[in-house]
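Example record for the data management plan.
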Amino acid sequence: MPPKLKTRKPTGIVPWPLVLIEGEEGSGKSYSAAEFSASDLIGQTYWIDLAEGSADEYAAIEGADYEIVVHDGTYRDILEQIEAVHAEARRAARAGEPPVVLVIDSASALWRMLTNWTQERARRSRKNRSVLERDPDAEVDITMNLWNDTVDRWMRVIHLLQTFSGIVVCLARGKEVTSVDDNGNPIPKQKEWRVQAHKDLGFDSTVWVRLRRDEDPQIIKARSLRLRVEKRRPMKLPSFSIEHLVFDLMGCSIQSQPRDLTTLAGDRVTVWLEKHAIAVCEDVEKLRALWWKAAEPEEGLERREVVTIRNDIELRVNEVENPPTEMGQRTETDGDRLRAAAREDEDAGDEEAKEETGEAEPPEPSEPPVRPRRRTARTSRTTTSKASSR
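Corresponding structural encoding:
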């Protein structure tokens, strides 16, 4: 029987945008975001300041009204705060309130933090530590798996911004740099403009605006039926404002919705584990119930997916029941004892095989052998005398 076809009719509603504003220093990127917070068409604005330090000062702009999101500078805390604003925007949208606005200032700082993290991890690897011990100035080899982790962290943030139930204003640095060839060598007298963030930030944005100090603002690209930007012919906006761009040019309104983006995955394992929050679940009985639930036909999982999920659940149960002790050690579990017994049986089998082939070596004594006591003449005479007396 073929699978059931699943479809829906398109809504035709203009989605809320992810607005990328990039440009030179002092071109008005942060100013435009603070100015937008004064609009009567939006709800609460949340400002996440990442190594820019301008959030407090720009609150002096007439009408500016936003809340500064507090974080400790780590990726984990920044991600959690973005998730918190994401949830608040969804609540406001369901309640029919004006759209929540999230300002990221800046994406360049976030990407720089992630690349620094990648380099630090590379320097800590066994191979690179050995090289740096011999030459502290040696080139560090950054392997592809480290870059994959970095991009994965970046994309977690981007997915939240793309599915935001409101307006996201993402600021970034941009400047002209020397062009390079396929081998990474600079090309003389050839310049190109580059956004200082992940290379796909422009693709992932709904509308891309460039600000320069001595030129009119330009719209580089826009994913919109109402706002058409010709290829390689940016649209100039002498009187640029984010409010005019979003509500007038792009046609957003209170009826707008977030973009419908389903996360793509090679299998259902990761999606299933995240849906049931296996990594943070502390309830052993719930984990055991999920262990059985994974195999139910309604879950739609393949056999190998069920095996992988059950293995992850078993590891999580082990973590909950046997928390780490001091120095990160864990208490011994039944699984640990079974694995240890299996290793002992395997070692014993190897020793028997060696004995049969004559390759076995005599075991080394655990303690030095005791030297036998010497019989003396006096001891012998005393023993003989005692025997005679009996």
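Summary line stored alongside the record: Confidence is low (pLDDT under 50) at residues 362-372, 374-390.
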